Amino acid sequence: MKAVNGGVKWQLVCFGVLAAICLAGGNAQAYVDATFDQPGTYTLSGDYENVYVGADGNTYTTTVVMEAGVHVNNMVSVASTGALEVYGGSCGLGVSVAAGGSMVVYGENYAVDGTPVAEGITEVSLGFNTLSWTDAAGTSHSLFIGSDEMVQLPGLAVEENQAPAADAGGPYVVDATSWDGAEVTLNGSASSDPDGDDIVSYEWDIDGDGAADSTQASFVGLFPIGASDITLVVVDSKGLASEPVTTTVTVSTWEVGVDIKPESTDNTINMGSNGVVPVAFLSSSDFDATTIDPLTVTLRGEDFNTGLVKVRGKKQNPMATETDVNGDGLIDLYVKLETEKLAEYELDAVCDFGALTYDGLVVSGSDSITVVPQ
């Protein structure tokens, strides 16, 4: 394993003589020479006569990768500006590396002229020696090498695992179906891994406490009225986590115009009265107030089953009509609320209403009032 004085020029002479002897037999198959002398990295594929890596005088490095299945009939010559990375393959005569060039052989179970390379040695001097090794698949390889530089033996090549990329979907925008908000299906299945590794965990944080609330690709969560930030981190099969990504879930109520006692500019309510309070829910270009279920009209935050609209008759029909209350050409919902039920709440200057549409969506609106105590 001692370097031979005289360097790669003497080696090239020897290789050339051997090549001439081999070709003189007349049975040699014709192969093509390949020269790589431009900057960048190039991967060999197939069969060659000779391979030339780099060129003396260049100011840049040319790298050539040689893998299993590649065969060079004669030799590989690495110039002072060349770099050869070897994973496998074969060469009829051998590899020469000039001073300044480099050669790296990836593998394990290295041996020089049959003598195993001791564990922990990561480079060897090869004057005229045969280096053998096995690749990651367990296949054996060997090359006759003459090098003016130490040949690097880093072991098996380890592909760097790239982090997966999380995709939380969204932003999600839904209508509230209760005062608690709405159930929303989150879907992170568009997350990906650049290495093609499986994504084994989807860590959703929907409440901002830093802990995973679900590890499934898709799940249903209950979100309050308003905007909520949610974060997703995904983990690949090798245990590498992605950077967190954030999206929003917005749960909204339908805001509707409300006019208490529309026939009057006086919104005074006498809480001691046993009568009714007329209230109009006004339609707009965005919302049809007649889609409101009058039996669900209540105060904001209250149970929709505790309706405030007065009912009558055996069928308990709500006192509600559909009419254009404000003369804008749109049909509104006009209801009559029981004053006694309103008196059960501590109302002050504003009366906030809530209701459900027949489709189960939450509607809210308010108007000012003047309360006459009981």
From TrEMBL:
The keyword Cell division does not apply. The keyword Nucleus does not apply. Keywords: Signal. Residues 1-30 form the signal peptide. Residues 161-251 form the PKD domain. It comes from the Bacteria. This is PKD domain-containing protein.
